[in-house]
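Model it.
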Amino acid sequence: MTAPIRVFVNATPVEVPAGTDVRGAIRAHDPELERHASAGAALVSDARGIALPLDAPLAAGSILRVVLRSRRGGPDVDADA
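Modeled.
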């Protein structure tokens, strides 16, 4: 068994098994937030603001930011319409 690694999800340290992907780290932090991310209702990015796929593997010290989308309408909704 490998030692767990520490990653950060929305500034909260989370211990996960080595080899865990983005989805697993979010699930360990908050299962409801992971459901939002899986459904496309949340954006996931790294510390630099670069979007991450949920199946991306993580390294120790990875920083994830997960933000719920505020847009409720479909993809063609125009705020100025």
